[in-house]
Design goal:
- The protein is α+β, with helices and mostly antiparallel strands.
- Among the domains are: about 150 residues, Aldehyde Oxidoreductase, domain 4 (2-Layer Sandwich); about 230 residues, 2-Layer Sandwich (Aldehyde Oxidoreductase, domain 4).
- The chain is built from 21 helices and 28 strands.
- A seven-stranded mixed sheet has the order 3-7-1-14-11-12-13, with helices on both faces.
- Helix 8 links the parallel strand 12 and strand 13.
- The N and C termini lie far apart (about 60 Å).
- The mean pLDDT is about 95.
């Protein structure tokens, strides 16, 4: 049963000092590449210079002869998969692909695809050894774009002889093999009937570019494979248990023999849920008998880790003359990269998320091509699909002569409405967000400057739950050590400690909040999907209730009473008995040694179900200036409004919203992977891959709408995903308002915008 927490001086809702702050600003924090072990060696990866080629031979002889080289691994060093097929969240997949993504076997499928890995006593020696590995290729035509992949005569990426598996995974086109992996289909109602009710129908095509999460810290891994078969891995990851599971499967080692220690993380945004270097470092360590540390260069990160998909969206929407949406037909084409698994399902679920559309069909295609396998990136799949819908709604509002936010209000989803994936909306606050946006001074202010425009857009993410664990040790001085399994990316240690503190009614400063590893804490899902403050917050709440119950039992023994008549009260952090008996938490803690020893509150595998998750809505307002001579777009003013349920730590919440908005603005204006016809990335450095920096943007104003989620003791909803969704359409709509040109292909960089202006 959930207890509503009410205390006089709560931590929740205040801006406490983060527990990791001092270490990070003073440089004492240990990130993945800071790990130092005795006799440590260094690993580097030999990568393919081609986007698509058969591997004819690999010769490591010269590299092994180089003084200082200790071990080399290729695909031959990986064990054969225990099972032929993996059951992933996106459906069955050949287990061999799990290994081939890490180390090419028969084919290379993207520029940067690993061929071999080397460990040596010095990083420079390892780099020299990589150059000495000789690989002979038979270069094949690359599949670089969605158009290439869907061409009737396109080269087929996965033609490696696993006929039954490949036939099940890929959709035949005109009776021939294709590069289209499984399709996703959602919707309900009768499309034809819906469009027959429409007074206006608009149909458009929208495109977005492949872009990277842009985390500051490159991927890294340090591994020790001991002689007793035990493996320890230190790595920068969003989820230690996910890494352990993947490494265990790939290397065919027992979970019990594998320990993963998450270091401090320098950003992830979804991109650090994936295994890249960890199995390579472990195999090199096994061969050499010494610890191995591996790090990526920025070029390796961009060329060989998972960006988000480039996309193409075909959207058709019908509405009545009074603005009621009656039908939507959407086809989403998402780049998966070299292996199936794009976030197209997320795009399909969220495309119409903010709205009630009675007749709808959404079809999503997962398309492989010679680029790195995509990975999650903040609201995976949603920014592209919602850009398409929100841009079309702006055009629809114009043609119907309806205020853009009024159109959204007319069609806003409400609790109990059916979602595209068949589920129904629970508690939500779309209307409250729309009202806050419509009434905001930014939205209501006048624009008088030439070539300045304003755009608005909504965003939706369903948020996540999953399993989390938390342990809390009460010390006799009244302090508490709180251990959770959620990697801290955006201040989770503080947010979780605040929820624990208020459940107990004790001071936040009395809690030492730590992140455990896979041997010291129970299973916990990844930090991602806007789940951590919500889901692991449930775990720390349950751990606190466990402590309260144990303290009631301990104090009952002291008072020689039955525990049923002793009650812990968080309002004063004291235990109360009959006849006015009272004992403070701190006093009870001091008596623990005499009443059975330390108390540990435990919450293992606390699972949050769909009914408790609170979906999240946001709306963004953007003012831009367009220079007609240069094509440069300058963001003049930006406001992000979002329902956050309850802002546990308002500063952190604002920071999450501001960061997501900036990333979305980057997608809208600058960020993209640029490939030549040979599948070679032309901008694989931060000099050429253009992300927004501080002087590119105005301050991002935030408005926190707090409609508590009734499915959480503190009203928490997820926060981190939604703010990356609205910027793409908000910026595109603002550009139209400024210069009268509809931007249906992003990013709207100066070159593309000048071309559009010239064609208008």
């Amino acid at each position: 049963m959930m207890t509503t927490i009410k205390i006089e001086n709560p931590s929740v809702g205040t801006n406490t000092v983060r527990p990791d702050g001092v270490d990070k600003v003073t440089g004492r924090a240990i990130y993945g590449a800071d790990v130092r072990l005795p006799n440590m060696t260094y690993g580097r990866v030999k990568r393919s210079p081609h986007a698509h080629a058969l591997i004819k031979s690999i010769d490591i002889t010269k590299a092994l002869e180089l003084p200082g080289v200790l071990s080399i691994v290729t695909s031959e060093d990986f064990p054969a998969p225990v099972e032929a097929i993996l059951q992933t969240i996106r459906g069955p997949m050949p287990a061999q692909w799990d290994i081939e993504r890490l180390m090419a076997r028969r084919k290379v499928l993207f520029r940067g695809h690993p061929i071999a890995a080397v460990s040596a006593t010095d990083a420079h020696i390892a780099e020299d050894a990589v150059e000495l590995i000789e690989v002979e290729y038979d270069v094949l035509p690359p599949v670089v774009t969605i158009e290439d992949a869907l061409s009737p005569n396109a080269p087929i990426l996965h033609d490696d002889g696993m006929d039954e598996v490949v036939e099940d995974l890929f959709i035949p086109v005109h009776g021939k093999p294709s590069n289209i992996a499984r399709t996703v289909e959602m919707g309900f109602g009768d499309i034809e009937e819906g469009f027959s009710q429409a007074d206006i129908i608009l149909e458009r095509v929208y495109e977005t570019a492949m872009s990277h999460q842009g985390y500051i810290e490159p991927h890294n891994a340090t591994a020790v494979w001991n002689h007793d078969g035990k493996i320890t891995i230190w790595t920068s990851t969003q989820g230690a248990f996910g890494i352990r599971q993947n490494v265990s499967r790939i290397l065919d080692v027992s979970l019990g023999d594998l320990r993963v220690v998450p270091a401090e993380i320098g950003g992830g945004f979804g991109g650090k849920n994936v295994v890249y270097l960890e199995p390579l470092a472990a195999l090199l360590s096994k061969k050499s008998g010494r610890p191995v540390q591996m790090t990526m260069s920025r070029t390796e990160v961009l060329e060989a880790t998972g960006p988000t998909s480039g996309t193409r969206s075909f959207v058709k929407i019908g509405a009545t003359k009074d603005g009621k949406l009656v039908a939507a037909d959407i086809r989403l084409e998402y780049e998966a990269g070299a292996y199936p698994g794009s976030p197209v399902a997320g795009g399909a679920r969220c495309a119409l998320g903010p709205y009630l559309v009675p007749h709808q069909r959404i079809i999503g295609l997962d398309i492989v091509l010679n680029r790195p396998k995509t990975a999650a990136y903040r609201a995976p799949g949603a920014p592209a699909s919602e850009f398409a819908v929100e841009a079309l709604l702006d055009e629809l509002a114009e043609q119907l002569d309806i205020d853009p936010m009024e159109l959204r209000d007319i069609n806003a989803a409400q609790e109990g409405d059916r979602r595209s994936d068949g589920a129904t909306h629970g508690s939500l606050a779309a209307r409250e967000v729309i009202t806050a946006t419509s009434q905001h001074p930014h939205y209501r202010s006048e624009i008088s400057d030439q070539d300045v425009g304003r755009g608005v857009a909504m965003g939706f993410w369903q948020n996540g739950g999953g399993e989390s664990s938390a342990y809390a040790n009460v010390h006799e001085d009244g302090k508490v050590t709180l251990v959770t399994g959620s990697v801290d990316i955006g201040g989770q240690r503080a947010a979780l400690a605040m929820q624990f503190a208020d459940t107990m009614g004790i001071a936040y400063e009395d809690i030492n909040s730590l992140v455990g590893d896979t041997d010291t804490i129970g299973y916990t899902g990844n930090t991602g999907g806007s789940r951590t403050t919500f889901a692991t917050g449930w775990a720390v709440y349950e751990a606190a209730l466990d402590i309260r119950k144990q303290l009631e039992e301990r104090v009952a023994k002291i008072w020689n009473l039955d525990s049923s008549v002793v009650h812990y009260d968080a309002t004063d952090a004291s235990l109360h008995g009959p006849d006015g008996q009272i004992m403070s938490f701190r006093e009870a803690a001091s008596k623990l040694p005499a009443t059975g020893g330390m108390v540990q509150g435990r919450a293992d595998l606390v699972s949050t179900n769909v009914g408790k998750i609170g979906a999240c809505f946001g709306a963004h307002i953007a003012d831009v200036h367009v220079d007609r001579d240069t094509g440069k777009v300058t963001v003049l003013r930006y406001t992000a409004i979002q329902d956050v349920g309850k802002a546990i730590h308002p500063y952190y919440v604002e920071g999450q919203i501001q960061g997501g908005a900036v990333q979305g603005i980057g997608m809208a204006l600058n960020e993209e992977y640029v490939y030549d016809e040979d599948g070679i990335m032309s901008n694989s450095s931060f000099l050429d891959y253009r992300m927004p920096v501080a002087n590119d943007l105005p301050p991002i104003d935030t408005v926190l709408v707090e409609v508590p989620n009734p499915g959480h003791p503190f009203g928490v909803r997820g926060v981190g995903e939604v703010p990356i969704v609205p910027p793409l359409a908000a910026i595109a709509n603002a550009i139209y308002d400024a210069v009268g040109v509809r931007i249906n292909k992003l990013p709207a960089n100066p070159e593309s915008l000048l071309r559009e202006l010239g064609d208008s």
